[in-house]
From TrEMBL:
This is Prephenate dehydrogenase. It catalyses: prephenate + NAD(+) = 3-(4-hydroxyphenyl)pyruvate + CO2 + NADH. InterPro entries: 6-PGluconate_DH-like_C_sf, ACT-like_dom_sf, ACT_dom, NAD(P)-bd_dom_sf, PDH_C, PDH_N, Preph/Arog_dehydrog, Prephen_DH. It comes from Leucobacter tardus. Belongs to the prephenate/arogenate dehydrogenase family. Its EC number is 1.3.1.12. Keywords: Amino-acid biosynthesis, Aromatic amino acid biosynthesis, NAD, Oxidoreductase, Tyrosine biosynthesis. Residues 300-366 form the ACT domain. Pathway: Amino-acid biosynthesis; L-tyrosine biosynthesis; (4-hydroxyphenyl)pyruvate from prephenate (NAD(+) route): step 1/1. GO terms for biological process: tyrosine biosynthetic process. The lineage of its organism: Bacteria, Bacillati, Actinomycetota, Actinomycetes, Micrococcales. Pfam families: PDH_C, PDH_N. Signal peptide: none annotated.
Amino acid sequence: MSEIRGGRAARTAGPVHIVGAGLLGASVGLGLRELGVDVTLEDLSPTTVALAADYGAGRVRDASDPEPALVVVATPPDVTADAVEAALARFTESTVTDVASVKLAPYETLRARGLDLTRYVGSHPMAGRERGGAIMARADLFTARPWIICRDGETPAASLAVVEAVALDLGASPLEMTPEDHDRAVGVVSHLPQIVSSLLAGRLLAAPDPAVGLAGQGLRDTTRIASSDPELWVQILTANRGPVVELLDGVHADLESLIAALRDVDAPGAKRAIAGFLADGNRGVARIPGKHGSSERFVRLTVLVDDQPGELGRLLTELGELGVNMEDLRLEHSPGAQIGFAEIAVLPEVVEDARRDLTERGWRTL
């Protein structure tokens, strides 16, 4: 039966039991609890499960609790298969899903053990944060994010519906993929970016302080995810090593060609090769979905904002008064200066009017 809270009916029928009360597990719990769904929690760490419960992600499961309708395994990737196997054996009527970021390795491990996977539905919400733990959990973590569901020919419609209901309740967009297609896809859109970001950030270790002091938004953008948990990423990358190595081989070949062109820029075709790599980047970034998953592109208007209390709020208020729909906002501070740069993404057809109107109101734009 659906629960009601705040005028919204939950599709998910509780109880839901979450194994692993870190970032993803606690975020699932928080989102479902907002809808009034009964959520129970467990974790190998008593402190972790107590913290998640204190934050409102659910309650610690008691031996007298009834069997859950759904078990969500939110453990690290290297123990996901073991946790799924344990859940299937412990809860003989429950649908079991996991939210690990790699899908093929756990599935093949479970199949190799000869388990009946009729009640198992692998899934992966494409959401997260640079830092983990229940303390970083959010009820809206999955809002407007894809939630990949991996089914096979043996998956009953009822089990699939249970997992889809949770994804929808948490504001995500369910998508079906095979485990193989999922791992290839996340390899290029998630795992490769993590590697490139980490390698780039690693080059800063040997850079002198004055050089690092010149860092701007470009460096911050490209190294943002480099602060992710190394232990977790070792598990992810080793579990998805096949697609990742294939991608890195391609990057390696591109780097060798680019290095060769830069070593002898006067060689025939060298400058064209360099331009080709940059142009490929332009075309590639144009494929990244924009707001709400659309392919609509935006232009950026930069406004200089004095580093004083209330100035950014005043800018946002005046943009609203001017009827400018801000699609995105990015802030950058100028090192050593009491000024910041607000990069505002707007539709191309409004950028000139917005620039003129802001200038008339005393704002400085670039």
